[in-house]
Amino acid sequence: MTDDTATLQTHRIGLLEGDGIGPEIVPATRRIVDTAVAAVGVAVDWVPLPVGASAIETHGNPLPQVTLDTLTELDAWILGPHDSASYPPEFRGQLTPGGRNIRPACALPGAASVSPKMDLVVVRENTEGFYADRNMAVGSGEFMPTPDIALAVGVITRAACERIAHTAFDLASRRRKRVTIVHKANVLARTTGLFRDVCQEVGRLYPSVTVDDQHVDAMAALLVRRGADFDVIVTENMFGDILSDLAAELSGSLGTAASINASRTKAMAQAAHGAAPDIAGQGRANPIALILSAAMLLDRVGARADIEFSAAARAIEDAVRATVAAGVATADLGGTASTDEFTAAVIARLEA
To answer: Domain segments of the chain: what residues?
Structure first.
């Protein structure tokens, strides 16, 4: 190590490639992050960790204990997509991020888009609801009393609703000052009714933010009809998962859908899309979603750890937008660039 690199301010960030297109888009993201942070005089100390199908082969588990132990020592990591459906039955459904899930959907200039003026954020409560593996201390929220009957338990708590509502209103306060609460209280009156009511209570603590609410089915239609009208959407787990994918596609492509999962002390960048095993290894994957997720992570780490990562995050976002606006894009955005070609174009802008 040279004297120059020895004096660089660094921060440890975990790096987990995952499955499918993960081994393509995670290294691409790492190259872009390294370039951006170097330009502002800091560096990332990467901590590669085993995860996914390759970890089953090497460690006998898609989420080995060594990975879990190391993650407890880190406050930030990047996780590539996982294809748990293809794992042996005993390992399916283990990789389930929790916390506050922030999913922006913003159209990129120059990219084909159904809603070219869309610029919204879905704030999704990601620990409860009807996702069976996220709402029980022991066991699952799904069970079958007979082979012909399947039941599911959805959990909504005031504490989790308050936490996600504050996240949404804090974010809206820094954006266009509007929050839309999405629920299905006309049918799920106790559970999503509680979610709606608690969010409205929290909203009264933010008098500068305008609040409205929508049933989830109406919200899906409104996103298609006038998605550009919305600012911050706050909702429960399953609704947020579905609506954020819809918003991403309307804004351009699921390949641009950035996402971060965060608790009070830790954060994980993970693209909203899946592992896309049908195109894995072909160099066709769009790395934008993970790149922008990493930028969100850098911004958070920079603010909390007093390191110049926020400037690097802004530079990454600007470089991605400028690259697409210049006509360099992968096939899902109407372009012809490969994963490597798009990555190289973004790096060239960061180095210019």
So the answer is: 1-98+260-352, 114-251
CA distance 296 to 262: 11
Angle, CA 347 vertex, CA 346 and CA 352 arms, to 5°? 100
- Tell how far CA 328 is from the center of its chain: 23
Instruction: Please write the tens of the pLDDT for every residue from 102-153.
Output: 999 999 998 889 999 999 999 999 999 988 677 777 777 888 999 999 999 9
Mean pLDDT of the chain: 93
Type of residue numbered 228:
A
Q: Does the pLDDT value for residue 59 go beyond 90?
A: yes
Quickly list DSSP for 24-77. HHHHHHHHHHHHHHHHTTEEEEEEE---SHHHHHHHSSSS-HHHHHHHHH-SEE
What is the helix (H) or strand (E) element at residue 305, kind and residue range? helix 288-305
* Under 8 Å between Cβ of 122 and 244: yes
Give, in words, the CATH class of 1-98+260-352: alpha beta
The superfamily in CATH containing domain 114-251 is Isopropylmalate Dehydrogenase (3.40.718.10)
- 250 in Cβ contact with 231 (< 8 Å): no
Catalytic residues: 131, 184, 217, 241, 245
